[in-house]
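Quick one: structure tokens for this chain, please?
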Amino acid sequence: MIRIHEKTLKDLEFSTVLAQVSEHSITALGKDSVLAMLPYEDEANLRLELEYVNEYLSSFDNDNRIPNHGFEAISKELKLLKIENTYLEVPSFQKIVSMSLTVNSILKFLEKFKEYYPKLAHYSSNIEVTKSIIEQVDSVVDRFGDIKDDASPLLLELRQSINKLRGKINSSFSSALNTYHSLDYLDDIRESVVENKRVLAVKAMYRKKVKGAIMGGSKTGSIVYIEPETTLQYSRELNNLQYEEKEEVIKILKDLTNFIRLFLPLLRTYQEFLTRIDVISSKAKYAKSMNAILPEISEKRDMYLRDAYHPLLYLTNKEKGEKTFPQTIGLNENSRIIVISGPNAGGKSITLKTVGLLQVMLQSGMLIPVHERSKVCLFNRILSDIGDNQSIENHLSTYSYRLKQMNYFLRKVNNKTLFLIDEFGTGSDPELGGALAETFLEVFYERNAFGIITTHYSNLKLLANELPHMQNANMLFDEKSLEPLYKLVIGQAGSSFTFEVAQKNGIPYSLINKSKKKIERGKVRFDATIAKLQKERSKLERTERSLKENEKKKLTEAEKLEETNTKIQKKLESFQELYDSNQRLIYLGQKVNDLSEKYFINKKKRELMAELFRLVQIENSKRKKTSAKKRQAEKNKEQQIKQEAEKKVEVIRKKKKAAKKKVAEVEKPKPILKVGDRVRMHDGRAVGSIDSIEKGKANVNYGMFTTNVSLDLLELVEAVKK
């Protein structure tokens, strides 16, 4: 059973949150339900509510938005339906039809998109979808809100008679109007309407000459309004028919009411369902306004709020365009109690209230503004002692009231409790009050309770430092300007900066120095040490930030250098290739020059051609080796880039090599070349015939010239015909 004290809700300004949530409600009943909302007592229902709100919130970010749930309350109608022999008016039936249509549309939508909204679909699956109410009301009431003529046979007959009678009234009145107008008995306006009846506007002097009932006269008395005698008779008949029509309409409405009365439980369920949907919708809209989420709910006692915002402060600052500072704080088995210290106006109380309010909101089925990696747990009881606790009504001082609160805490605190105490121990003698506060804190610690307190007392800071499952924390201050940084730091107590703040606010240094001498030297040294540690922490944080920035710059510069190095390497490689190419061309040029000079001397054409072909063959073989090296280099690069696929590639290569070996084994034996065979050189196009073969070489005749070539360099094109 989860119970949260009323005072805790008041301390944490929970009612203000509810007022903000209610602004998003679109129905009166929904708004009232939100304002009356309290934390859930049952954990299972709480978890379901959180799921409902989270699913509704998700509908804002997709194309399948949940249909509108607006409705007019039918509370009065439900009360009347409980009373026998009562009947509803047409507007009441219209509200019931409208509600039925709304509920049906939502139920059908949730059934259709139950994959998107499984929890809401399951919640609505037990509610009946029916068209009977809508069809029955539509058979009686038209879209203008009038009872249909064919609602009953008698009503149809009566209305037909009424219409005929109205025709007779109009014709008889027109006849009398024409008759008396021709006699000049009527005023210029001729006719008027009195008590919803057409009357003749007769000149006062002729009133006795016109037969009928006098219905009134003008203010001046010059005109008398008379209903003609013939029309008067029809009007009486019309009144009788209209009375019967009214009675028949009441009878029809009673029959319709009796039919609707059968659906009384369903209509009550409909209204409760739409009210609940409005509450869920209001919570979801409120969550969207401050980017709230549903964090992980831990089964263990483990709470970690990362980048947590105080909802009221966040929304207020958002309207003003000001920044709100989030806080990160955690409680678990190894750190059950946190003691926050530091100067006033540094954000201690706001941090305390942030944790408390977010916990209460969560346990009321609301999403909270924290980072998505936050974690929460549920508490059976949340106790608080925050703000001005002086009780004028009970004539209690602040300290007396606080002692009563501590007595209540001592009775209720256990291992499933979260307690929040602001300015713990104040209100009495610092030493005596501090000692008592220390004893209370030890009791809470021994009971394994979770809690956060704020204090200026040194003994409580020391206690937090001594106990293994209790931690100090402080709100950071700028050591130079003494302006708050609104950042919570866990693990170290905070100085109150008493004398520093006094000096900043213009208190003479002589008075501050005199004050220092009046207190114990140890206390000053302790506070000074804490202040020094805080300054050191601030410096370390600045250094850490600076180092991180430098590291980022160095990484960027290293990347640029690496990129430049790669470009230079590529240029060097291209220059080397160009140099090698030029050297090769110079060598070829020298060779060709030597051959031409040799030919110039000996005039041996065949020798020249053979040497040229040999030179070409050597260069081609070099080209093959170069291209093979390039291909190997490319393969090496691919292997480096695709390390993950290396094994598969290796398997494929092995298969290819095995296939090549098989092909090589299957290759035909090299043919024996003979005189007269038509041949060509490997990788050559020119075809010639063998004139003679001597010592493994063949004289090949190409027509224009002949050349002496090794048989190994030739391939058969066409064998000589025998």
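Confidence is low (pLDDT under 50) at residues 390-395.
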